[in-house]
Amino acid sequence: MTFLKKLRLFFIIGFAAVSLISCEGMPGGDARKNPPDPDLRVKKNLEEGRGFRLDNAFKNRNKGGDFMFASSNELWRASLDIIDFMPLSSVNYSGGIIVTDWYSDGKNLNEAVKISIRFLSNEIRTDALDIKIFYKKCNQMASCEVTQKKGPLLVELKKEILTKATIYKKEKKDKNFKEYKGSKKLSN
Asked: Would the pTM count as exceeding 0.85?
């Protein structure tokens, strides 16, 4: 074998090895979660909205593009819905942060609360949110003390956001569900 043929073979084998190794963490690669029959896999993917259908490709030609805005992110929507009673100080979707202004319920004007929500991931997980709650307590002399609190309110707030985000995700999945009507008769 000539040097060029050996070099070419080396690159082919190296590329194949790298390709196989890099597939290890790919989503959808778990055979236990996917049916072995290709027709059933196609049906499952299309019903979950993960496929491409030619019947939808030419509909709504005059309509603009399909853009993804903050309203399509379930965690973002849930967070805004949960704290909708509080005035917002800073909201930055691309930066992934929501900061409320100081809020007082009106019963005790010397105490106020401020919430900061930072999004670390778009996935609905407990570690996807970094929530900080600050309390401000002022005395009669107008000097205020601000402290960061952890405790049941923080846990409850995170739980409510994740619950509502899960509901939004399920509604979106149900809305996108379209039964696959393939040419073959498929059975479950």
From this structure: no
